[in-house]
Structures are given as C-alpha cells and as structure tokens.
Amino acid sequence: MPRAAASRVTSKLTGWLWARRLQRYGGGTAGGSPRWRSEEIPRVPSRIPPRVVASLIAAGLVACGGERATPATTGRADVPVADPARDGGTCPARDFAAFFAAFSDDSAVQARHTRFPLERVTVVDAAPEPRDSVERVGRAQLRLPLVPPAARRAADSLQLRIEPRAGGELLVVLERPNTDYQLAYVFEPAGACWELVRTEDRSL
Fold first, then answer.
1. Do strands 170-175 and 193-201 pair parallel, antiparallel, or not at all (unpaired)?
2. Sign, Cα dihedral of 174, 176, 179, 181
3. Of 24, 31, 113, 173, which is most buried by a Cβ count within 10 Å?
C-alpha cells in the first residue's frame, strides 16, 4: 500500500478511536459545557499498535477489492547444522589411502576426524588367556598423535595394511614383522570423508 494511503487509513482510525472514547465517557453537553471534567477526558494513544493498523489495512484492502495482505513470518525453519567432521569440504582427500596419510601426519586432522567418545581397546595379558579392556575416551582426555607419522613408521619398520570391512568400515593395521607388535585403527564413513571410531592395541 502507498505511504499516503496508509497515512489516511491511520488518520481515520485515530478519529474512530476518539469517537468511541467520547461515546464511552459521554459526548453530550449541558449548558454548552462538557459533562465531564477536564481530567476525565480520555487520552488517545499517539501511536496505534502496528497489529491493529495491519488488521484494519488488510480489511480495507479486501473491502475495496484489493489484494489481501499477507502477514510477514518471523519464524525460522529448522535447518540442519553440519558437523565439521562430516563436512566433505574439510576432508583432506577423496581416496582413503591419501586420507590416512594426511591423518597420520597431522594431529589437527586427527582431532577433526575422530569421533568422540573414542573407543579404545587394549589387550591385557591375563590368566588363563589375554582379554580385551575397553574404554571410551573423551576429547579432553585424548592424547595426540593417535597414529605414528610416516617417518616414525619407517624408522620403526612398521608395515601398513588397509582392509575393507562390512558396512563400509576400513581397518588400518600397523605391525612389525616377526613380533607381536600390532596396532589397529577402525574408520567409518562420515559424509564424504571418514572418522576414526576405535583404536586397538593388540601388542603383548
């Protein structure tokens, strides 16, 4: 609606409210004087609530054959918020072998692509046979790096093996030939990337 038309509607509304107030308090006169005292004269609000103005404007448009006004909406639809670790834009590589190379050489990548709480499995040498000890580690308790970098693996003669598993899981095994040294890392798909969900230390 043009500004001038809206102003005219507001002026008419103010006059209508004034007339209603006069009817309520008594609009007659006796001897040329108003029947109420000056302090009883009702005050007309200088600013009419926008909700009232909008309703009357909409009604006026309909009555004049115009377009019905549509109330503005202030609510916001629920928008899913992406987890940074699941956002494909933060994945260091599309190929898992290249991803693991970046993961093992950068502690920041490890922290970003680890699911918490992290499940950590350790083999305990107990009688009558070794058993698994499982604990869940939060971000605050985590010590980085979780994976020895490539230079460290080469110096320690560790061999790397990647095995696909059911459900899209990937098992990464680090082992030293002819010893019982073995570390395993389980990754699961996370969006367009992967997350570390479990570590296993099976060295005895």
1. unpaired
2. negative
3. 113
- What is the C-alpha to C-alpha distance for residues 103 and 99, in angstroms, rounded to an integer? 6
What is the rounded CA–CA span in Å between residue 15 and residue 18? 5
Q: Which pTM does this prediction carry? A: 0.56
Residues recorded for the chain = 204
pLDDT in tens, 157-179: 999 999 999 999 999 999 999 99
Domain boundaries, the chain: 3-63, 84-201
Question: Do residues 54 and 71 make contact, with C-beta atoms less than 8 angstroms apart?
Answer: yes
Q: 62 is written with which tokens?
A: 């309909």
Fold of 84-201: Nuclear Transport Factor 2; Chain: A, (3.10.450)
